[in-house]
Amino acid sequence: MKPVFLYDTTLRDGTQGEGFQLSGLDKLRIAERLDAFGIDYIEGGWPGSNPKDVEFFQAAKSLKLKHAKLAAFGSTRRADTPVEQDAQVRLLLEAETPVVTIFGKSWELQVTEVLRTTPEENRAMIRDTVAHLKKHGREVVYDAEHFFDGYKDSAEHALATLQAAAEGGADCLVLCDTNGGTLPHEVQEICEVVRARIPGTPVGIHTHNDCELAVANAVAAVKGGATQIQGTINGYGERTGNCNLTSVIPILQLKMGLTVVPALENLLDLSYYVDDVSNNPHFARAPFVGRTAFAHKGGMHVNAVKKLARSYEHIVPQSVGNSQNILVSELSGQDNILIKADQLGLGLEKGSPVAKAVLQKVKELEHEGYSFEAAGGSLELLIRRELGTYTKPFDLKEYHTSFRKYRDGHEPVCEATVKLYVDNTPEYTVAEGHGVVNALDVALRKALLPFYPEIEAISLVDYKVRIVDGHDATAAKTRVLIETTDGHQSWGTIGVSENIIEASWIAIVDGIDLFLQKKRK
Amino acid sequence: MKPVFLYDTTLRDGTQGEGFQLSGLDKLRIAERLDAFGIDYIEGGWPGSNPKDVEFFQAAKSLKLKHAKLAAFGSTRRADTPVEQDAQVRLLLEAETPVVTIFGKSWELQVTEVLRTTPEENRAMIRDTVAHLKKHGREVVYDAEHFFDGYKDSAEHALATLQAAAEGGADCLVLCDTNGGTLPHEVQEICEVVRARIPGTPVGIHTHNDCELAVANAVAAVKGGATQIQGTINGYGERTGNCNLTSVIPILQLKMGLTVVPALENLLDLSYYVDDVSNNPHFARAPFVGRTAFAHKGGMHVNAVKKLARSYEHIVPQSVGNSQNILVSELSGQDNILIKADQLGLGLEKGSPVAKAVLQKVKELEHEGYSFEAAGGSLELLIRRELGTYTKPFDLKEYHTSFRKYRDGHEPVCEATVKLYVDNTPEYTVAEGHGVVNALDVALRKALLPFYPEIEAISLVDYKVRIVDGHDATAAKTRVLIETTDGHQSWGTIGVSENIIEASWIAIVDGIDLFLQKKRK
Fold first, then answer.
1. B240 and A279 in contact by Cβ < 8 A?
2. Which residues contact A117 (CB under 8 A, 6 or more apart)?
3. Rounded to an integer, what distance in angstroms lies between the CA atom of residue A180 and that of residue A143?
4. Residue whose C-alpha is closest to residue B322's, from B268, B377, B376, B254
5. Which residues span the domain enclosing A179?
6. Domain-ending residue, one of A387, A407, A425
7. A424 partner at 20 to 30 Å CA-CA among A16, A389, B95, B251?
8. pLDDT, tens only, B431-463
9. How far A506 CA lies from chain B's nearest CA (Å)?
10. B382: distance to nearest CA of chain A, Å?
11. For A462, which residue in chain B has the nearest alpha carbon?
12. Taking CB atoms and an 8 Å limit, are A286 and B240 in contact across chains?
């Protein structure tokens, strides 16, 4: 049996964080990645809280998870309501997940002031709901909300609620530091008490980062006997976020000798993937997986580092998929590119001149601020160009954008013109748009349509902008990510430039270009 | 005596972090703010490592610190060199700071492999250097580099190096987790051993965040008997950063009952100040001081929060200068604005209709993405407008920008035109620029110069761009910060818009407008 089980709540508690939104499709894709990485439990959402989560669990029935168990999240039954008649509990069963996680109140103050019921009824709500879910064959995880605050207020009351869950047959009792205000030594001590008082049921830990101690508190809980850790990828979550699994996993595996995932070297890819899907910038200073986590700068002599790496690095960077001196190659390494080429059906032999040229080009572009994690379309074009299977669809002569702002009360006007050649035939178009970029997209399509009527089928569905480096005013780069679709498939393309208009142009052109390359075959 | 002393190294170790650069002037301004906040020690730089730090300490002699002691950082003497002849040690004394901090090697492996000397000579280097600095009247802090790694490798060797520093007369022995790989329980245990073995000298702690445990390790050290904590504001520093003082200070003061600063409610302002001066985005999820640290979202009923705030917040947000439901007012509160108006010599009476109107306007603008911490110029204009002491310098009719990109090999052309009236006299100008914004700035000055020849004296010295919210593609805002100078003084102005050109225009106009308002008096 695993020494510690990993319970991911990126899809539920993670999405409570500001700026971390996921579509239903995003959630399915992330669930597959979490499963492939070796996460044990994936909490998908709260079917009782919104119809979108009900839909998610419907769609998730077609997911083929190899290892992970999917969990639906919800609460105990309402006060004074038989559990069989509780609509929210029914939705939990209808999600048809192997695991159901329910939270209940541990803090007497909350029972009387928020629930407005008695401690006895509160315990019955916990016991009944767990027993009901067990009767329906579910593995039941019990989340003891506000456990540490409740324990400090009244230890016996808090312990009695856990006892109720254990009596109901709970498979794991998760102690939640809901407000994130508990210190590590308190967490460890209280875990030890719980293990001693309720020895028959495994204990888990759910922490928040309000004191910048979420990871430390999870580690303290493991030292106190906890065998399940709840958290999120990159630490997303309500307020300051949840326990960052991206940090806790390598600590368990590399520092504490507890094997929790089969291939820790995939950690960096997973971390980038979640950020790219949710359109969040990757945190450069992130422990283990950050771009600067193993950067040697400052007064450090690179020779000394090379001579004696272990004296300047607390772990081998490759063990988490990262690398030393990341500035040369910001992404996750060369093998990654070869694997992607293979997935696209574009054969690239490791060590061949073409493969070397592709890798060189990718390195150069990453150094300029490109990132291909969410721009597979641009990566595919880059490989096709090196393979010699690429035909240029048009020659640009020039494009022009204009923005005119009038005195208050008069709408600004955005206009773009495009002048290009297709097989020596000139085309010159003009269009207006909601913004400069929109105008440019419309003008370009107008110019290409007579030659490539098939582009009528495709459209731009997503547009994301990010400043890559805001520190040097004159050299700040803008990164534009665009998603183009033909109604069946969609592909991401990227442009980077000091000028936002130019960056957008590059990404728009790639989006159309890739479609034309594929159509041509 | 204070239970724990705070040692800030934002100006030295902080600037080892990627993307965290400070000019000499920035460093002086931050030192004043750290002092005002109640930091005990401010490490200003390493005079032996670069001439800029020598200059900083020269300039710092005119700093009037009320509480903090300034520290110069450096290393022990070189092997086989008498300390009196060591150039780097001489520079440390020439910095003329009351405190000197020197680091030495604790890890035997590093002594033999990097220094290439003997353990005996290493200890002599430590002892001699400390004694030499003490002889010259300095308070000496000894940073034991790689202490925890060295201790785990050979405890006796590591302890002997501390003993050598104590023999030299060191005032504090700081245990450094240089690689950031140590776990909290190890830190506490090892601190306890050091306190027992070398009881005469206080112990400090210097941690890094490579395992997301820097704050936890500092807290563990305090539990192990440490009485000095080294760290940086907002956790900046090499690789993943240093111990975040912005988190550790409220933990000490609010959770552990150790009073370390006189007015913790100024914490949020200090945190924003350091970010704005270094042009870093403030981390929304930051514990205690983040914009979302006390945000209630998710399934949480706002009524329940209001009813029983302490059951949903681990501390009172105002105790660190933050506030609940921060989305209404993202900045640090109303009093802050009144204090700033007072500093500008613009009387604003608390509760007066004008003050209310200003506060309302500030709130609205902050909600749109404005931030006035580094844009005092725009704030001053806003107050002047409400006070009725403002005269509009010109009426805009329209402006226009154009960007034309040719096929590869031909430079793009940026052009701007401005059409405006001053006292009903029209002016219509055109200019080219390096970029769209530069062209706009030049064209505007050209239009105003005939009416306001005094603007010849001012120029734009800094331009910073940031995407405020990159999540919703259509609503992403661009924030532009501009610094304008007349050669004596400089002032910051801000513009926010969905369009980068419009945001830049707003900031440029404010920069010139404020100058004209002041000249008019």
1. no
2. A79, A80, A111, A125
3. 15
4. B268
5. 5-262
6. A387
7. A389
8. 998 778 889 999 999 999 999 999 999 988 777
9. 12
10. 18
11. B473
12. yes
- In this structure, which amino acid lies at residue A262? P
CB pair distance less than 8 Å for A16 and B183: no
Give how far Cα A440 sits from Cα of A40, A414, A415, A481, B411, Å: 47, 9, 8, 15, 19
What are the chain A neighbours of B212 within 8 Å (beta carbons)? 215-216, 244, 247, 287
Q: Where is the domain boundary, B235, B262, B289?
A: B262
Contacts of B398 in chain A (CB under 8 A): 404-407
CA distance B168 to B147: 18
Token pair, residue A228, equals: 């399940």
Asked if B280 contacts B237 with a C-beta cutoff of 8 angstroms, the reply is: no
Q: Which two three-digit tokens encode residue A55? A: 């839909």
- Contacting residues of A for B145, CB less than 8 Å apart: none
Q: What does residue A40 show for φ and ψ, rounded to 5 degrees?
A: -85, -40
- Kindly compute the dihedral angle of the four CA atoms of residues A347, A351, A354, A358, in this order, to the nearest 10 degrees: 90
Amino acid A152 reads: K
A395, A420 contact by CB (below 8 A): yes
Does B239 sit within 8 Å of A292, measured CB to CB?
yes
Residues A55 and A182 in one domain: yes
Total-model pTM = 0.73
Residue A275 lies in a domain: no
Cα radius of gyration rounded to whole Å, chain A: 27
Predicted-complex ipTM score: 0.72
In contact, A427 and A396? CB cutoff 8 Å? no
Whether residues A471 and B16 touch (CB distance < 8 A) is answered with: no
A223-237 pLDDT tens trace: 999 999 999 999 999
In a domain, A344, yes or no: yes
pLDDT of residue B499: 80
| H or E element at residue B222 | helix B214-223
Residue B37 CA, chain-centre distance (Å), reads: 13
* Cα-based distances in Å from A432 to A443, A521, B440: 8, 34, 22
Mutate which of A207, A211, A283 to test chain B, going by most B C-beta atoms within 10 A? A211
The tokens of B50 are what?
A: 């670069």
Instruction: Give how many domains chain A has, as a whole number.
Output: 3
pLDDT tens, position by position, B145-172: 999 999 999 999 999 999 999 999 999 9
Judge whether A295 lies within some domain.
Answer: no
B303 falls within a domain? no
Residue that the structure tokens 């760290």 belong to: B231
CATH number at residue B508: 3.30.160.270
Do β-strands A459-467 and A425-433 pair in parallel, antiparallel, or remain unpaired?
Answer: unpaired
Which CATH number does the domain housing residue A19 bear? 3.20.20.70
Q: What would the pLDDT profile of A341-364 be if each residue is shown by its tens digit?
A: 776 778 788 778 888 888 888 878
Cα A464 to chain centroid distance, Å, stands at: 16
Indicate the helix (H) or strand (E) that contains A394: none
CA B97 to chain centre: 22
Answer for the pair A271, A246: CB distance below 8 angstroms, yes or no: yes
- Say yes or no: A68 and A159 in one domain: yes
For an interface test with B, the pick among A212, A236, A405 (most B C-beta atoms closer than 10 Å) comes out as A212
Extract the tokens encoding B265: 């409610």
Cβ–Cβ < 8 Å for A4, A222: yes
**B65: DSSP letter:** -
> What is the helix (H) or strand (E) element at residue B1, kind and residue range?
none
Contact: A293, B396; criterion CB under 8 Å: no
DSSP A518: H
